[in-house]
Amino acid sequence: MAPTSVHAPLKEADIQSTKASSIKALTESGSVTSVPSEYSFTLNPNDQADSNDPDHSIPTIDFSLLTSGSPEQRSNFLHDLRKACEDWGFFMVINHGVEESVMKGMIDECEAFFNLTDEEKKEFQGTRNALDPIKCGTSFNVAIDKVLLWRDFIKVISHPEFNSPHKPAGFSEAALEFSKRTREVATELLKAISETLGLESDYIANAMNWDQGLQMVAANYYPACPQPDRAIGIPPHTDHGLVTLLIQNQMGGLQVQHKGKWVNWNAMPNSIVVNLGDQMQVLTNDMYKSVWHRAVVNNTATRISIAVPHGPSVDTVVVPSPELLEREGLPPSYSGISYKDYITLQQSAKSYMKPCLDNLRIHGK
């Protein structure tokens, strides 16, 4: 899923040629009427999104049926969840119990962070370590980027230890509440996913050391683009963890690959989008798969999305479940690697715009 035109990896000086340290600063400079060459990303015609095919109806899961429904409703929930995990790897959760005010408050605080001056944001830039407690910047990684991304970001690790920038003033409080509430949803979903696999509800949590599991809050800022067909917010990728929860403001931009086609994901207001990550695919030995998705930009208004990846503890070595392998009579498809090392591998040049899981797949599987 690479761009049609490939450039040499960008150097530190290349990003400075835009005379802006962020895409927000660049678009607000008043000098950008077209996409600079550093940001040029053109999709192949066959990769355009298709939302009109009835085979691509987005699955919606009513979370309240899991937590407070009747036994029959709960059974139907688990059936629908399994089908969504098998067919899509993505689903939309409604009636999840996270108040609209909590979600809107988090989006507002992230917008306030992006509105800080570049000088104020500098102290939160972090290093190139993917596991920095707090990290903000633009694009992806200028050391390996072939195309700069039309996005700025702020990422914080919120579990097992909570971290937050100290500005803007309300960010920490909003992030703490948002992190706790989304983790509650993720915990219940993980139990349900265990059950859909025919395992005990606490199986995945125990196997993945969930109590010490890694949770991040990653906010992305995509300003309006003068030529949205010539830039990309985030290129096609899969997520590194077990499950990712995502919310956004009123601007869409998420596209998901389903049955070989790209589909626009038009999320319902106040819903949470959930997708499975690479560690779930390894654990289930391909029964459930992480799915390629991307973020496109528009020429109308700024989009803000907040993704909350949840994974094992960083030292957990993830391998296919021995219980599932024995039951299905299958050999393992993946070799083991610690979650920390997997994240590093995923964000390295070796995996740039390539399926990172291919590095772990056992030959012939």
UniProtKB/TrEMBL annotation:
Source taxon at top rank: Eukaryota
Residue spans of biased composition, Polar residues class: 36-51
Keywords annotated in UniProt: Dioxygenase, Iron, Metal-binding, Oxidoreductase, Vitamin C
SUPFAM superfamilies: Clavaminate synthase-like
Stored PROSITE patterns: FE2OG_OXY (PS51471)
Domain Fe2OG dioxygenase: 212-312
Family: Belongs to the iron/ascorbate-dependent oxidoreductase family.
Annotated protein name in UniProt: Oxoglutarate/iron-dependent dioxygenase
